[in-house]
Amino acid sequence: MDIFSNISLILDAKTLALILGSTITGVLIGALPGLSSGMAIALLLPFTIYLEPSQAIAAMAALYCGGTFGGSITAILINAPGAPPAAATAFDGFPMAQKGQAGKALGMAAVSSVVGGVISLMVLITFAPTLARIAYKFGPPEYFALAIFGLSMLASISSKSPVKNLIGGLIGLFVATIGVHLTTGISRFTFGVDELFEGISFVPVLIGLFAMSEILVQASKSELLLERIKFSAIKLPSINEFKSCGKSILRSSGIGTFIGILPAEGGTVSAMIGYNEARRWSKNKENFGKGEIEGVAAPESANNAATGGAMIPTLALGIPGSATTAVILGGFQIHGLRAGPYLFEQQPDLLYTIFYGMLLANFIFLIFGLMGAKIFSRISLIPRGYLWPSVFVFCLVGSYGLSQSMVDVYIMLISGVMGFFLRRYGFSPAPIIMGIVLGELVENSLAQSIIIFDQNIFMFFTRPICLLFFGLTFLSLFYRPIKNLIYKGKKDE
Amino acid sequence: MIKKIQSIFLCFAIVVTSFVGMGQVATVAVAAEFPSKPIEVVTHAGLGGGTDTTARMLLIRTRKNLKNNAYITPKKGDSGNKAMAYVKSKPKDGHTVLAITPTHLFRMARGEAALTIDDFVGVARTTVDPIVIFVNAKSPYKTIEDLIKAGNKKPIKYGGTNVGSVDHISGLIFAREAKTKIAFVPFEGGGAIMTSLVGNQIEAAGLNLDEGKDQLDAGELRVLAVMADQRMAALPDTPTLKEKGINASFATVRGVVVLKGTPQSAIDKLEKGFLKAMKHPVYQNYLQGAGLDSSSVAGSKAWDTEIKSIYKEARAALVSLGLAK
């Protein structure tokens, strides 16, 4: 395949400058909690009519790539994931920064993001039309099975006690039930508040649970003076550290690409599953949640792989693979273009421009991320008396800016206080976030499946993909007890 | 110290109130010269959605036509009710424009909305997107009659967006008028409905043409009927339900309205500015990209009449379905 013969398509000054500008804008916007790349693309949409269609779409796609990576910067430095897909990055990224290894965490995030992004792009350009059809195989029953598989990780997703993880997961599931029920139209736990009608927005909860509760934690130990050595904080990861994360990065890239293809799921779930699988197969399970570098590499490669993955059904079928790609499809419309099979057969030039735009975006944020790591990591050296009050301002603005609603700010503050006490009593935010992310999917897909199956719940077992995920769920729950049993049996002999 | 702070506050309060006062005087004084400040378009949907994108495309040229700035304020929540409540709180001077869809009208028809149908005046229609009944290309249902017949034996699994949406109501009315049965399967959005239809999870769906166009062209889906009074230019061979004697015409229509009581001169200026913007290639290209006809665009009078008739029909339908009192 002559993939590289078309590279000249983006080699003109205007296109290159656009991609450079969009990527860096994306990284910065992605880093700010409450501003998302989807939002930025929607706002820029009307201005792109003055560009060539292919340039416009390439710029939007580059912004998308940059935005996904950008979320990790604030997740690592101030425990405030800039975007939901970066939530899992904060689990280990922030503890690393606390230990004075901010540079290592940021460097690892940049490199693993690029590996994930590039792998998914290669998959996109070679197999997109075939792989995109996976989207058709996933109906409500299949999403239900996938969500159940995701929920089976609740107990093990953090190294805190499994019982507490399960309780946290249930809190998350409960929060996800707030709002109107999809198939009945009945509103639940909204107490007449209009803003809760469409459910609790995820971003304020995220900012509250992570950043706001961190502010309270920091405030409670303000007497402590922390000494950090500047030199080690800005140090980048060593070659050996990259090598040790290789397997996790590859595994996560695969998980991310696959989940990215599914229209109902994207970066956030990919990162969670990537993180959990890295922990499952790691030799240092106990270090996860306390600043394990693999715990940064896995979710970052997964969420960036999901970016390329989400572009697969978007470009090949015209079905948005995520909220941001839905906006990019809007960009196609504005220019009177269509995505879909047509794009691959009749407009390869446009396709290649998008592909190279995204590829270039990945390398731009690699350079930006690695060089920036040395600068950004100094943020972790700011005395906490100055740093955390400014993070508080970030939290307020970030949760308000999402939909200019004070209710979101209250949600953020309540989640912050709740998060503080939950952490104090040994709960991790990870299962709560997982519960919220999967709660809506598991509930909606079950309700839809029941209608589709004429109320016969056993029909789930007639679906091959459902059976596969149910099998994986069974393995993930009972792998260890069974292994222990066999091992014990051998010992007895 | 406290006294000092109090006096500072007092001074501040006086300054602020006098500014506010001046502002009111100023608006009254220049009310004749509309527009005197930027135009605010209030939407009810998220950034990048159909309503948002349409509004943004509309404003590009409107700004030039009215020689005035214009911006979008998204007020998401409660099926458009939040946007309606916000607009209601604004002065009736034409500077606040509400983008409406059937969602708002249905919300009003179900009662308990911040605005009633008599509270606003239509300014211009921006898009008309009839609902098209799609089935899988391999489906045994070749015509709309096949589908109706099958529904009599066993309810058709019919996909659409949220309960209470135009998809839902139109599906129920279609079933009632065609004397058949559907089991409505709600989805979060058009993309999910379409994939479920291609994947044979559901048997039929009410979608906008654009949502299923790629799959239709690729031969994966088939269209059975259009819920409109006239055939669509893009689907000349597809019958309308009306032709089949089924009285169910529904479309995702979008347009802009202002509060009743706004000076007629302001409405006229807005209408002129919007209509000219929608004739421009920038907007026309967008319509074409979305698979819509240029007949989507209509002026104040036609649009206002249409809103009222949609409301009336929706109200009757909702009452007869037991969804409103």
Short description:
Chain A has 493 residues and is mainly α.
List keywords for this structure.
heterodimer, A: 493 residues, mainly alpha, B: 325 residues, D-Maltodextrin-Binding Protein, domain 2, nine-stranded mixed sheet, 11 helices
Task: Please give a structural write-up.
The complex is a heterodimer of chains A (493) and B (325). Chain A has 20 helices and 2 strands. By secondary structure, chain A is mostly helical. Chain A has one domain. Chain A has a two-stranded antiparallel ribbon with strand order 1-2. In chain A, a hairpin with a 6-residue loop joins strand 1 and strand 2. Chain B has 325 residues and is of the alpha/beta class. Chain B folds into 2 domains: 37-128 and 251-321, Bordetella uptake gene, domain 1 (D-Maltodextrin-Binding Protein, domain 2); 130-227, Periplasmic binding protein-like II (D-Maltodextrin-Binding Protein, domain 2, 3-Layer(aba) Sandwich), CATH 3.40.190.10. Helices cover 46% and strands 19% of the residues of chain B. Chain B is built from 11 helices and 9 strands. In chain B, strands 1, 2, 3, 4, 5, 6, 7, 8 and 9 form a 9-stranded mixed beta sheet that branches. In chain B, helix 2 crosses helix 9 (264-279) and helix 4 (102-109) packs across helix 11 (300-321). Chain B is globular, with a radius of gyration of 23 Å. The chains are: A mainly alpha (493), B alpha/beta (325). The interface between A and B is large, with 52 and 50 residues.
